[in-house]
From TrEMBL:
Signal peptide residues on this chain, from the entry's feature table: none
Domain M23ase beta-sheet core residue range list: 269-363
Keyword Transmembrane: no
UniProt KW Cell wall biogenesis/degradation keyword: no
Matches recorded under Gene3D superfamilies: 6.10.250.3150, Glucose Permease (Domain IIA)
Recorded coiled-coil stretches: 27-110, 206-240
Listed transmembrane segments: none
UniProtKB keywords: Coiled coil
GO molecular function: metalloendopeptidase activity
Protein name per its UniProtKB record: Peptidase, M23 family
PANTHER family per the UniProt record, alphabetical: MUREIN HYDROLASE ACTIVATOR ENVC, PEPTIDASE-RELATED
Natural source organism: Legionella adelaidensis
C-alpha cells in the first residue's frame, strides 16, 4: 500500500513546479499575453463581421444581377418571338401582294380588252345602227353594258390597287418594327453580356471573401484555443501564487490546524495518524495549497492530496466524499471532504499524513 502511495507522490512531485519568484513574473507575462490575445480576437471578430457584411451586400447585388439576367432572357425571348411572328406576317403579306399583283394585272388586261372592244365599233357605230333602223332598245342595252363593264373593271382595279398599297404599307410598318426590335434585341444582348461580366466579378469577390472569412475563422479558432490554454495556464499560475502568498509551510511547525474539528480521538498508524470521527463530519485543509490528487486509490479509498509548496504535501484518506478536484486551490480551514470509511476501513475515520519531498514526516509535530 505504501509503495503505491509513494509512487503516486513521486509522480506528483516530478510534475510539480517549484515555488519561485519567477512565477510572479510568468503570471504577469501571461496576463499581458492574454490581454494581447483578447485584442487580436476582438480585431479578428470585427474583421469577420465586416467581411460577412460585405458578403451580404455582394450576395444581394448578385441576386439582383441574376434577377435582371432572368428578366432580360424573358424579354429577349419575347422579342425573338415577336420578330419571328412579324417576319412570318411579312411573308404572308408578300404572298398576298403577289396574288393581288397577278389579279390586278389580269383585271387591267381585261379592262384594256373591254376598252378595245368598245371602241372597235368606231365612234359613229351607234348612229349607223340608228340609221340602219336597228332596234334602239338593243343599241341602248349594248352601250349600257359596255359602260357597266368598263366602270366595274375600273372599280375593281382601284380596289385591288388600294389593297396592294395597304398591304405594302403594312409590310413596311412591320419591317420598321422588326428593325426597331432587332436594335432592342442587340441592346439587350449587350446588357446581358454586361450582366454576365458583373455576375462573374461578383462571384469572384464572393469567393475571395469566403476565403478571407474562412482564413479569419481558422485564425480566430486558433487564437481562441490559445486563449483557453493561456487562461488555464494563468489559472494554474494564480493557484500556485496562492501557495506562495501565504506563510511558508516550513515555518508552520506546531501551527497547522487539525483536519478534524475539536479534539477527536486518534492513533498513530504506519507513517501517519488516524482521526476517529462521525461519518459525514467535515475534513478541512490544514494549510493552503493546490489539490494535486482527488480520486479513489486502492488501500486509501477516496484520497485527496494537497501540495503546499516547498516540497510539502498533506494526504487525506478513506473519505466519504471529496469536495475538491485536481487543480483547484484551497485555503487553510476550507472544507475539502467528509469523514468516511472507504477503501476497506472498518471504522469511520480520517487517515492523515504529511510528506516532505515524498517522505513521510511525523504529522503530530506539525499540528497545533
Amino acid at each position: 500500500m505504501n509503495t503505491k502511495l509513494s509512487l503516486c507522490l513521486f509522480t506528483l512531485l516530478t510534475f510539480h513546479i517549484g515555488a519561485t519568484y519567477g512565477e510572479s513574473v510568468v503570471v504577469s507575462q501571461t496576463k499581458n499575453k492574454l490581454k494581447d490575445l483578447d485584442n487580436k480576437i476582438a480585431s479578428l471578430k470585427q474583421n469577420l463581421n465586416t467581411a460577412q457584411d460585405k458578403k451580404g451586400v455582394l450576395n444581394r447585388e448578385l441576386a439582383n444581377t441574376e434577377k435582371k439576367m432572368g428578366d432580360s432572357i424573358l424579354k429577349l425571348r419575347s422579342i425573338k418571338l415577336g420578330i419571328m411572328n412579324k417576319q412570318k406576317r411579312i411573308t404572308e403579306l408578300q404572298e398576298q401582294v403577289a396574288i393581288l399583283t397577278e389579279h390586278l394585272k389580269a383585271e387591267e388586261e381585261l379592262l384594256a380588252k373591254n376598252i378595245r372592244s368598245r371602241y372597235k365599233m368606231g365612234e359613229y357605230e351607234p348612229l349607223k345602227w340608228i340609221l340602219n333602223q336597228n332596234n334602239p332598245q338593243m343599241v341602248s342595252r349594248v352601250l349600257t353594258f359596255y359602260q357597266y363593264i368598263i366602270r366595274a373593271r375600273q372599280r375593281n382595279i382601284q380596289e385591288v390597287h388600294n389593297t396592294r398599297v395597304s398591304l405594302n404599307t403594312n409590310k413596311e410598318t412591320l419591317h420598321n418594327e422588326i428593325v426597331a426590335e432587332q436594335a432592342l434585341q442587340e441592346d439587350l444582348i449587350f446588357q446581358q453580356k454586361k450582366l454576365e461580366q458583373d455576375k462573374l466579378y461578383n462571384n469572384a469577390l464572393v469567393h475571395s471573401l469566403n476565403q478571407e472569412i474562412q482564413n479569419t475563422k481558422q485564425t480566430l479558432e486558433e487564437y481562441q484555443h490559445n486563449k483557453e490554454n493561456l487562461s488555464r495556464l494563468l489559472k494554474s499560475l494564480m493557484q500556485q501564487s496562492i501557495v506562495q502568498s501565504q506563510k511558508p509551510f516550513t515555518r508552520m511547525r506546531h501551527q497547522l490546524i487539525r483536519p478534524i474539528g475539536g479534539r477527536p480521538h486518534f492513533e498513530k498508524v504506519n507513517q501517519g495518524v488516524r482521526f476517529f470521527a462521525n461519518e459525514g463530519d467535515s475534513v478541512v485543509a490544514v494549510h493552503g495549497g493546490k489539490v494535486v490528487f482527488s480520486d479513489w486509490l486502492k488501500g486509501y479509498g477516496l484520497l485527496l492530496i494537497i501540495d503546499h509548496g516547498y516540497g510539502f504535501m498533506s494526504l487525506y484518506a478513506h473519505n466519504q466524499s471529496l469536495f475538491k478536484q485536481k487543480g483547484e486551490a484551497v485555503i487553510q480551514g476550507e472544507q475539502i471532504a467528509t469523514v468516511g470509511h472507504t477503501g476497506g476501513l472498518k471504522q469511520n475515520g480520517l487517515y492523515f499524513e504529511i510528506r516532505q519531498r515524498g517522505k513521510a514526516v511525523p504529522p503530530l509535530e506539525w499540528l497545533s
